[in-house]
Amino acid sequence: MLAQAIEVEVQSLLDNFTSLQANSKQGVVRNGHLPERHLQTGFVDVTVKVLKVRDRTGSEIKFNSILVSAYLKRTKNIEELIHWLYLRGISTGDMQPALRSLLGKQAKGVVSKQCFSTQAAVGSKIRPVV
């Protein structure tokens, strides 16, 4: 389903630039796929191949998927889950076993990175009690 949605995105871009020509050929065309990537979702890991577009006119037209951004590795719900667990008072060490079942071997790096950003965000909003 995700592949079909990306296909629609690319086709929409190509349709917008059908009038562009380069040497009496279509100016903006499909050009294969980016390397395969794996996205972590809340339920299952998904393998994604995003299409590439080539601009023959030199106008520097590029395709950037709205659905699968350039550096996306995890969907938002996993990051929100990590923040939620942290804010509920579970220490970093205690979150490891809980998240290992969700994230697999990557849990250790993901948790420490997210906890650090959560500490920074929460710490800036805490006021001393007077």
UniProtKB/TrEMBL annotation:
Signal peptide: none annotated. It comes from the Bacteria. One of its GO terms (biological process) is DNA transposition. GO terms for molecular function: DNA binding; transposase activity. Keywords: DNA recombination, DNA-binding, Plasmid, Transposable element, Transposition. Transmembrane segments: none annotated. InterPro entries: Transposase_mutator. PANTHER family: MUTATOR FAMILY TRANSPOSASE, TRANSPOSASE FOR INSERTION SEQUENCE ELEMENT IS1081. Required for the transposition of the insertion element. Belongs to the transposase mutator family. This is Mutator family transposase. It comes from Candidatus Enterovibrio escicola.
